[in-house]
Amino acid sequence: MEETRRRPNARGRGELLREEIVTAAVRMLDELADDEALSLRAVAREVSIAATSVYLHFPDRDALVLAAMQRCHEELVGVGDEAAATASGPADALRARILAQAAWAQEHSGLYKVLHESKVHRRLGMPFKEVMVARTVEAVQACMDAGVAPADDATTVAIDLRTAVNGMLAQRINEPDLPWPPAIEQLDRFLAKLVGLRQ
């Protein structure tokens, strides 16, 4: 059976194809929840191109996974930024950011799993993830500056908070049958106990 092939992109439109490849990889990784299960050949089939065309944009699977995860991370940061922008004060902004990111993770559990458990992460690192830490540090510091959280080292507090949130989300994804309390209640406890926000 002959494979369907797409018409080649016009000269200078290769960046569009690269974006389509990344989009397909993101969609597939969300379903697979495992970067090792992704193949460049399968991605090529999804985009209706020859497998060799993928190699024009990505030298190997790791490079494609890294690009897909960078896009996901940017979306995750953006969701938090958007939620925080509508909040009424620093405490509400931090809470809105964390809740929005947790909701994204629950909606895209496969992507969140790859983002935090990827083998590519161990091989190449994901330096773009520093943006999330920086945003959380800024939000925690704003709470301290406003007097709605006790003064402390904002970086340490933010890392403790991210560790708790990431651990909670990972466990909910990997062990969905446990008797989990509502996520919002657990996140509020983290904000109270780790940051010192008054409920």
Overview of this structure, please?
This protein has 199 residues and is mainly alpha-helical. The chain has ten helices and no strands. The longest helix has 25 residues, at 61-85. The model has no long low-confidence stretch (mean pLDDT 91).
- Helix proportion: over 70%
Task: State the helix count.
Answer: 10
Element string (H = helix, E = strand): HHHHHHHHHH
Count all strands and give the number.
0
Kindly, what is the distance between the CA atoms of the first and last residues, rounded to a whole number of angstroms? 63 Å
Described by strand count, sense and barrel closure, the largest sheet is: none
Radius of gyration: 20 Å
Low-confidence stretches: none
Q: What is the overall shape? A: elongated
Q: Give me the secondary-structure category.
A: mainly alpha
Question: What are the main properties of this structure?
Answer:
10 helices; mainly alpha; 199 residues
Please outline the helices and strands.
Elements: H1 14-32, H2 40-47, H3 51-55, H4 61-85, H5 90-107, H6 109-117, H7 119-124, H8 130-145, H9 154-174, H10 183-195
